[in-house]
Amino acid sequence: MFELVFIIASDDKQGIERRKMEKDWVTEMEKCRSPDSPLARYSLQKLSAENKWDLKSNFTTFRFHLFYFLEILLAGIDINDVSKANISIHNLTLIFYIMPILDYSECVQHHKDLTPDEKSLCLLSARLPVLAEMALDRMMGVIQCLAITAPKDSSSALGNFKDESTKESEEERVLKKAIDRCVTALFTNTKFAITEKLSKKVLDFVKTNQFETQLATDMISSLIAQMTYSGSIGLWYMLYMLSRIYPENTRYIADRLERPLKDWVPIREWGKMYDMSEAKMAWYVPGEKGKELVEALLKKFFFPVVESLKNKNMDRFV
């Protein structure tokens, strides 16, 4: 699948005659999409009408299929079929790394050298923030389904957090890793304005759900960790960034994504190959100001909580 996605993402050559598909499955998907879908507002018909530009007739490469691949893969994230969910999430991860996740529509106003295909793709990219949110929703839906334990019979040990009924299977362990990687890709290659919204969605999810199984607890904890290390906001992220020596690779990606759209066309970086000499490597080393800020944060938020626990009776049977 990776080879196929990469070939499609890199299909930017103009003037090449491409074979027509035997079946117009894109049109079928547009017709079958539910009117209640978050993507209904971004249908080809509505985007064409709003922008006075016929998107479909101006697609000259196969790159627009990636938007529909994303939609199909999202539907494949189903807890009732763990194998299918694993495959879907794995391929979502590949696409999220290949495509910068942000709305490129503004490029049409700034770049007059866009080909008709590029213009159509930029307008269609209005779907990307919605698709990113849908992907996170589907993965959190999986965690929510796994958060409830099956009713125990009289022979089971009640109250055991790691009993046989909650023990994770090999498939579930693979699923957990797949979600970790997908969240990392999503938060690494997505514009900050979008990841900020996704972070708040995760926070609301944690605050409004009860996690009764070890697997669900591990999955949501791991999801938050991946989200945090990939550039989200939060106290732990601040402490991590200020107190450790680490490579600043993600900062270069973030800086690239935050460039004004008048300075670049994201569609031209899909599946772009870079030479080794173009790779940048830098290390962050904590300075005195950083150390002072870490100390201030610990004194304000962490130490008071630890002190409050000293006088608490932690015996569960009392």
From TrEMBL:
This entry carries the following GO cellular component terms, namely: cytosol; nucleus
Superkingdom is Eukaryota
State one Pfam family annotation.
Answer: HEAT_PSME4_mid
Q: Name one GO biological process term.
A: proteasomal ubiquitin-independent protein catabolic process
For this protein, the record's InterPro entries field holds:
Blm10_mid (IPR032430), PSME4 (IPR035309)
What is the protein name given in its UniProt record? Proteasome activator Blm10 middle HEAT repeats region domain-containing protein
Q: Which segments constitute the Proteasome activator Blm10 middle HEAT repeats region domain?
A: 228-311
